[in-house]
Amino acid sequence: MAGVVVVGSMWGDEGKGKVTDYLAQKADVVCRYAGGNNAGHTIVYGGKKFALKLIPSGIFSGHEVIMGNGMVVNPKAFLEEVKYLNDGGIDTSKIRISDRCHVILPYHLEIDELQEKRKGDKSIGTTKRGIGPAYVDKYSRIGIRMGEFIDEELFLERLKETFPMKVAEYPELKDMFTVEGIFEEYKEYAKIIKPLVCDTGMLLDQYLREDKKVLFEGAQGAMLDIDYGTYPFVTSSHPGANGVSEGAGIGPLYIKEAIGIIKAYTTRVGSGPFPTELNDATGDLIRERGHEYGTVTERPRRTGWFDAVVVNQSRRMSSLTGISLMLLDVMSGFDTIKICKAYKLDGKEIYGLPATVKDIERCEPVYEELPGWKEDITHVKSFEELPVNCQNYIRKIEELVHCPVRMFSVGPDREQTVVLKDIKF
């Protein structure tokens, strides 16, 4: 029983796609277990750059890829992404979609927009892809699941039950949609998707009992976890390894390794507290060097120094067995580099993330400053080839987050990933 999970251990955009693509070469099956098409993964494959929002980035491995029950799936967006991949020469016939995942319908996107407008200056900066509203319907027990969606008669019946409830809550929807209009468009998507739908939990259980190597692919970052992230500036699911069992339909004992993906610095997209944020020339320089713009939205990402408090929270949530340190090359050229080792709140040093945004915003980062390095490291193939100050930076991160660095990247290509200790299924 050999499952490995790859999780973002900051606020997302850490470079999970590249590590997933690397590990997928060893796997037999790749499964994504949470989120929807608000997550973006960028993969360089065959000399081409692909930006995925919904389909697991393991699709490039040629193996079967599974979209688990913890996901919310926009059928229209899914089929657009399938076409995008097919046009790029990528086979999508081995995709399997859980019959228990929830369906995002067009009114969910409008509700997302309406909610953000109603919140005014208190908006949380969602991608407005309908993710949150779909999860709300799931937990309100009025959502439409994929198994219902692909049954034409049942889909219409459920739509007639659900849509009037949403109109009662958001009267604006009455002038935008009709049950008949939604049904006529989306029943056609359902016909195309139907052959891909199955009980993926049973499928995964079978594969794991057969000792097949299963890679679980996280989306977004652990600091966006609905419970342990910077609530309410979070997503609506559990992006860390803590979400695998619920979102894939298998037990936690199937997980052998949990690899946390972190950057050599910190970024965040959208609103929310960010203790180590740099609103200065240094932050701008990191953004440009790291090409820190959203895969889905192209929004400029907020940037800051490395935050060990954040990564420690992620380590605890996901029981990380190792970390992959991404974009290390971006930090070349600084005279000194700061690492946040703790926060100061009300005069005391703390090492955990406070529960309320009010308290997080009052936190002052406690920094340790290290000598930087000037050398170009994009060509290195081993830890020993790194400048001594760069080696010390990695070792300090390991010390502060209580977790070994298992690999690091010095550029965007697969060949620019250096493995220190192999990750075995």
Automatic annotation (TrEMBL):
Annotated binding of GTP, by residue: 12-18, 40-42, 301, 327-329, 409-411
Assigned keywords, A-Z: Cytoplasm, GTP-binding, Ligase, Magnesium, Metal-binding, Nucleotide-binding, Purine biosynthesis
EC code(s) of this entry: 6.3.4.4
Cofactor field: Mg(2+)
Pfam families: Adenylsucc_synt
CDD domains membership: AdSS (cd03108)
InterPro entries the UniProt entry points to: Adenylosuccin_syn_Lys_AS, Adenylosuccinate_synth_dom1, Adenylosuccinate_synth_dom2, Adenylosuccinate_synth_dom3, Adenylosuccinate_synthetase, P-loop_NTPase
Residues noted as binding IMP in the record, renumbered to the chain: D13, E14, G15, K16, N38, A39, G40, H41, T127, R141, Q220, T235, R299
Binding site for Mg(2+): D13, G40
Record GO terms (molecular function): adenylosuccinate synthase activity; GTP binding; magnesium ion binding
Enzyme class per UniProt: ligase
GO annotations of cellular component type: cytoplasm
Principal subcellular localisation of the protein: cytoplasm
Active-site residues, record numbering mapped to chain: D13, H41, K138
GO BP terms, alphabetized: 'de novo' AMP biosynthetic process; IMP metabolic process
Pathway: Purine metabolism; AMP biosynthesis via de novo pathway; AMP from IMP: step 1/2
SUPFAM superfamilies recorded: P-loop containing nucleoside triphosphate hydrolases
Ligand binding (substrate): T295, V296, T297, E298, R299, P300, R301
Reactions performed catalytically: IMP + L-aspartate + GTP = N(6)-(1,2-dicarboxyethyl)-AMP + GDP + phosphate + 2 H(+)
Localization annotation: Cytoplasm
Cited function: Plays an important role in the de novo pathway of purine nucleotide biosynthesis. Catalyzes the first committed step in the biosynthesis of AMP from IMP.
NCBIfam families: PRK01117.1 (NF002223), purA (TIGR00184)
UniProt family annotation: Belongs to the adenylosuccinate synthetase family.
Subunit structure: Homodimer.
HAMAP family named among the record's database cross-references: Adenylosucc_synth
Protein name (Swiss-Prot/TrEMBL): Adenylosuccinate synthetase
Species this chain originates from: Faecalibacillus faecis
